[in-house]
Specification:
Oligomer: single chain
Number of helices: 1
Helix content: over 70%
Order of helices and strands: H
Strand content: under 5%
Largest sheet: none
Length: about 120
């Protein structure tokens, strides 16, 4: 009976030891779960950051495209301005020629009147 009691006490101690080990393992498991959760959060943030970077890159490209379009439009505007300047110059020359002709006509009319 004493031997049985000693064996029982040994078994109780073994169960207590195993319970303590199990508790330690549960604590480690909880720590690991927390680490996994933290990593998941970091990954989510990293994915969101990557998506935002992609969006930003896309917006940069759109802005570059718009800048290029604006440059092309400015070039066209400069060309049109030059055409307008050329036409103004031609008009001025034609006006000068017209004034010269008017003056010649006036002189001829004066000569004809005098004769």
């Amino acid at each position: 009976s004493i031997e049985y009691s000693i064996n029982l006490t040994d078994k109780d101690q073994q169960i207590t030891d195993k319970d303590q080990q199990l508790s330690q393992l549960n604590t480690q498991l909880t720590d690991k779960d927390q680490q996994i959760y933290d990593r998941d959060q970091q990954l989510i943030i990293s994915i969101e950051y990557s998506q935002l970077n992609t969006q930003l890159t896309d917006k940069d490209q759109q802005l570059n495209d718009k800048d290029q379009q604006l440059t092309q439009l400015n070039t066209q505007l400069t060309d049109k301005d030059q055409q307008l300047t050329d036409k103004d110059q031609q008009l001025s020359q034609l006006n000068t020629q017209l004034n010269d002709r008017d003056q010649q006509l006036t002189q001829l009319n004066t000569q004809l009147t005098l004769n």
